[in-house]
Design goal:
The chain has 181 residues and is an all-alpha fold. Helix content is 69%, strand content 2%. The protein has a single domain, classed as Fumarate Reductase Cytochrome B subunit (Up-down Bundle). A two-stranded antiparallel ribbon has the order 1-2. The protein is elongated. The protein binds protoporphyrin IX containing FE (2 copies). The site of one protoporphyrin IX containing FE has 20 residues, from helix 2, helix 4 and helix 5. One protoporphyrin IX containing FE binds next to helix 2, helix 3, helix 4 and helix 5.
Length: 181
C-alpha cells in the first residue's frame, strides 16, 4: 500500500474518542427506547438515572471531541468535489445532533419537579418545574434522537462502502501505526 493512503490519519485521541462515543451513544439510544417502555417502579427509575448520567457524559465527550478537533485537526478528505462536501456536511450535522440531543434531554429533565443527578450527585437546579417546557424539550429530544438514528444509518453505510472499496477511509479512523511521512 502506498504511504499516501495512510500518511494522513486521525490523531489517536480523536480515534479513541470516536469509538468511545460511538459505543456510548449507540447504547444510550438502545437504553432510551427501552426505558420508556418499562412500567413505573424501581427498575424504570434506575434506568432513567443511568440514562441521564451517561447522557451527560456523552455531552461532555462531544465537547471534548470538538476541543481535540481544534488542537489536532482531522486529515484532509480522501475524496474530492461533491463527495468531500457531502461528508463534511454529514459530519457537521452529526456534531450538531450530538450536541442538541443530550442538551435537549438535560433541559427536559431540568423542567421536571425531580432533582437532576449525575451518578447520584445532585446538580444545581436550573429552573422551576414547567410542564410545557418539559414537553417541548422532550419532543426536541425525541426528534433529535430519530434524526441521529437516520444519519448514523447513512454514516455507517458510507463507512462500510469505503471499507469494501478498501480506500483507506476506515483505516484512518482505526488505531494503528502511522506509516510513511
Ligand atoms: C460501526 C460504526 C461506525 C463506523 C464504522 C464509523 C466510521 C467512521 C469513519 C471511517 C470516519 C472518518 C470519515 C472520514 O475520514 O471522512 C468517521 C467519522 C466520524 N464519525 Fe463515525 N463511525 C461509526 C459510528 C459512529 C457513531 C455511532 C457516531 C456518533 C456517535 C459517529 C460519529 C462520527 C463523527 C462525528 C465523525 C467525524 C469526525 C471528524 O471529522 O471530526 N460515528 N466515522
Ligand atoms: C447522546 C446522549 C443521549 C441519547 C443518544 C439519548 C437518547 C434517548 C432516546 C432514544 C430516548 C427515547 C425516546 C424518547 O422518548 O425521547 C430518550 C429518552 C429520554 N432521555 Fe435521552 N438521550 C441522551 C441524553 C440524555 C440526557 C443528557 C438526558 C438528561 C439529563 C436525557 C433524558 C432523557 C429522558 C428524561 C427521556 C425520557 C423521555 C420520556 O419520558 O418521554 N437523555 N433518550
Amino acid at each position: 500500500m502506498s504511504a499516501g493512503a495512510h500518511a494522513e490519519r486521525y490523531a489517536l485521541p480523536a480515534v479513541l474518542l470516536h469509538w468511545l462515543q460511538a459505543a456510548l451513544v449507540l447504547w444510550l439510544l438502545w437504553l432510551g427506547w427501552n426505558m420508556v417502555e418499562l412500567p413505573k417502579g424501581a427498575e424504570r427509575s434506575a434506568a432513567y438515572a443511568l440514562h441521564k448520567s451517561f447522557g451527560l457524559v456523552a455531552l461532555g465527550l462531544v465537547l471534548l471531541r470538538l476541543a481535540v478537533r481544534r488542537l489536532l485537526p482531522p486529515p484532509a478528505p480522501l475524496a474530492a468535489g461533491h463527495e468531500a462536501r457531502l461528508a463534511a456536511a454529514a459530519h457537521r450535522l452529526l456534531y450538531a445532533l450530538l450536541l442538541a440531543l443530550p442538551l435537549a434531554g438535560y433541559l427536559a429533565s431540568a423542567f421536571t419537579p425531580f432533582a437532576m443527578k449525575i451518578f447520584g450527585v445532585e446538580l444545581p437546579r436550573l429552573a422551576a418545574p414547567d410542564a410545557a417546557m418539559n414537553a417541548f424539550f422532550k419532543s426536541v429530544h425525541l426528534v433529535a434522537g430519530w434524526s441521529l438514528v437516520a444519519l448514523l444509518a447513512l454514516h455507517i453505510a458510507a463507512a462500510a462502502r469505503h471499507a469494501l472499496r478498501r480506500d483507506g477511509t476506515l483505516a484512518r479512523m482505526l488505531p494503528g501505526r502511522v506509516s510513511g511521512n
